[in-house]
Amino acid sequence: MNPTGRSRRRLLINAALLSAAGTAGRLASAASTASATAGITPFSHAALMREPPVITPMMFGAKADGMSDDTAAFNAMYAHVRATSSRTVFLRGHRYQANGSIYARDVSTIGEGATLTMAVNSEKDSYAFEWGGSDTFVTELAFDLSNLGRNPMQGVVNGCNDASNQRFFRNRVTAHTTEPSKLQSNIFGLWVLGTGLNGLYVLDNQFEGCSYGVQVNNQDGMDKNVRKQPLGKPSQHIHIRGNTCIDATIGVNTPHVMCSNVVIEGNTITPKNLHLDLPLNVAHVTELVVYGNTVTSNTASANGTLHIEDASGAVTVSANVVTALAANNGIQFGVDPSASHDARPAMRAVIMANHVQGSLASLTSTASIPHGETIGILLPDPGTIDTTVTGNYVAGFTQGINAVAASTVFGNTIANCPVPLRLSKDSAARQNVVK
């Protein structure tokens, strides 16, 4: 073989050896890494369910047949878990019956598609299922609720104070018991009473027939000043997003507790059999976003379909579809402190790009207007200043936009409203389209 051939052969051999050495090095490195991480299993929902101990109601005597009363088994299970380092129970997708209250505080519940049918007597028990506590959650569970008593009661209640990172997501809450008048259910959906909250997330649930579907409520009469005599510590970071409410409303009513950084986004509120005159209600909140909700009322009222009062700081109400099927206002927004007796706050609000439809939308003359005036967008009190109302479509109200205090109103489309604009003398109005 000539020298050139030998050199070429040597070059190929050396390249092969280097490649083999590199591969071996990588394999050795991978083996070393695998060895170093041996015993560390990545988190997964499925793996968690397989790992002992998986705590279920059946371990405490639940029949899970949808007929036997499993109340005692549930309460024994939650009591056991609270006394251990475990924080989660699994319901394994079964159907359970409970004829009394279940106390599930300080424990997380994964329903895995389970149904919990509860028939509770409100004259003996004030709630059906109580949960909550820092870093706890309830998910993938259907609550099927009936009230055997005559008193209103909470269905799923959370009364924890000073709790952080509480999550209620991908559940279904259905209430079957209503007052004879069909004005409201007498067993309500998710009711949150705690103060000092930091991070409450109510996400992607369905509430049906509950009247009060989601309610964050801190109220104590009408004569207490929140700054001088609050109910508890301020709450912050409340997120209510992606919920479907059928015959159920959403409310954040905290006039006696300071509440900040509230986001209400992408929820759908629809009446079916019950009367909803105040489907979305927010009171005493600072730093508020109400975005992308579809809200419908079906009852004559002066409250407003999307009602916000005693709001301060940066407030944005945008991209909502608001429909009043009866004689009601559309968006009603103000800073009047009402029940809180709070000092009047500084106000910087934007009401933008909402579609607001009233019950007169299909009428062509004022002769058919129902009794009483209705207003598409109402700013009802003199403290609501420096508010911008822009890019909204308002149709079918006796008045389109009414601002009592100085506001900037521009670029709105107002259709089939006998009085399109009624503004204070200090307001600025321009480039609005009236049809």
From TrEMBL:
SMART domains referenced in this protein's UniProt entry, alphabetically: PbH1
Keywords linked to the UniProt accession: Signal
UniProt xrefs under SUPFAM superfamilies: Pectin lyase-like
Superkingdom classification of source: Bacteria
InterPro entries xref list: PbH1, Pectin_lyas_fold, Pectin_lyase_fold/virulence, TAT_signal
Signal peptide: 1-30
Name of the molecule in the record: Pectate lyase superfamily protein
Record organism: Caballeronia udeis
